[in-house]
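Practice set, problem 2.
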Amino acid sequence: MLYALSMKKIKKLIKFLVGKGPKRNKIYIHKPFTKYIDKTANITLMGYLELNKNWNKKLQKRNKISGQLLLEKNASLISDCFSSYSGSKINVYKNAKIELGRSYINHDCCIDCYNHIKIGDFCAIADGVKIRDSNNHNVLENDFIQTEEIIIGDHVWIGMNAIVLPGVHIGDGSIVAAGAVVTRDVEKNTMVAGVPARCIKKNIFWE
């Protein structure tokens, strides 16, 4: 048992999130798409990386929404069967590292990585989610976090238009409600909601 799910349900979840998937060790980009990859940047494919796809094959052919991938100087991207949907942007800035597990981000998401962001396996990240590990500007307070890594565990569900801010660790099996702003760590199998996000239920399980 994993996350209180049977192996049958786990396999069904894997099929839903990843499907049979494209061939491993390849990058698939669906147009229109904007990309800039610095010559010093590094991409490691443990599985595949599929960008700017659509849930509907007919809409995929008619898609006019551009996705984006930016890898600046010495940036590093590691992917294991990860997908992004139309309009989503992944920006990895100078010397930063992003690790993308067997998961997906839905339409119009944006990931800005200035330090280190890790997304685990079997995560469902809904439309319009923003994940950003830097505030860029500094506030002159002792406990202010300007830039700090974000770690999202396995089997995490992040609802529409939620925002995950620097220094946050989200535990395995957790749920972030739609529109939540996550400013602090989330324990495993916990549901958080609100601005700022707070625990509203523990020992939750989802599929």
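Problem 2, part (b): a different protein.
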Amino acid sequence: MQKFKVANLFGIPIYIDLTIGLLMAYILLFLGGTIEYRAVMAVMLPVSILLHELAHSLVGKLFGGHIVEITLYLLGGRAVISRMPYKPWQELLVALAGPVLSILLGFLFWGAFYLLASLSSPFSITMHFLLDVFASLCLLNFGLAIFNLMPAFPMDGGRILRSALECCMLSRVKATTVAVVVGRVFAVFWFTLWVSDFIFGVHIDVTAWNCPEWMMFIFAILFSSGGIVLPLIAYMIWISGMQELNLVRQEADYYGD
């Protein structure tokens, strides 16, 4: 797909892939709420993803990495970092930067929600709108963090797992192999959820589970089986994991492991 440059932040070119338009259109057409609410969420989802990727990039730059670009597309964002730091603890910090920022943004919007709720009563239409937006942005950023912490390439959790294994004295090839296998287990699991729902009509109803709301939110991310996005993510994990492993093997052959 074709991509377009839209900005340059901290010396990093920012691109959007045409597929990001599909994501925004889906939100505008199928998300509940008013058109104003849907428009805000259609804009803020890519913005939240961009901030997540910027966090990776800026921490990578601290360790001498060169950020080629950041691209936003249908299934998320991707920061292309050349001269990536190879020390395991550095990769760990780079991988953690995105989820940590998303969590901080989640708490920021959570605080804004409760601050606004405590200031006014009864609420005007505008106040209700802002409360809905802040609550949704809180959950959105927490969701980005949780999803990206799944231990599967190309998500942050896969790199965190690999760097942790390297810190435990495994070679980079062996650590990557373990991380790829774990990621493929998640890919098979998510694809199986989608098949069971789409073909057989069997799905996991997390709303029936007796657990706190924050835990319900995590379970909904892990076990949701609706739409075509889930098999696309499973496919991306399956392919990206093998691409990463092949790259690491090539580097090991060239430099020596």
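Answer key, part (b): Helices lie at 19-30, 35-62, 88-119, 125-148, 156-167, 172-198, 213-223, 229-255. Strands lie at 3-9, 12-17, 66-73, 76-82.
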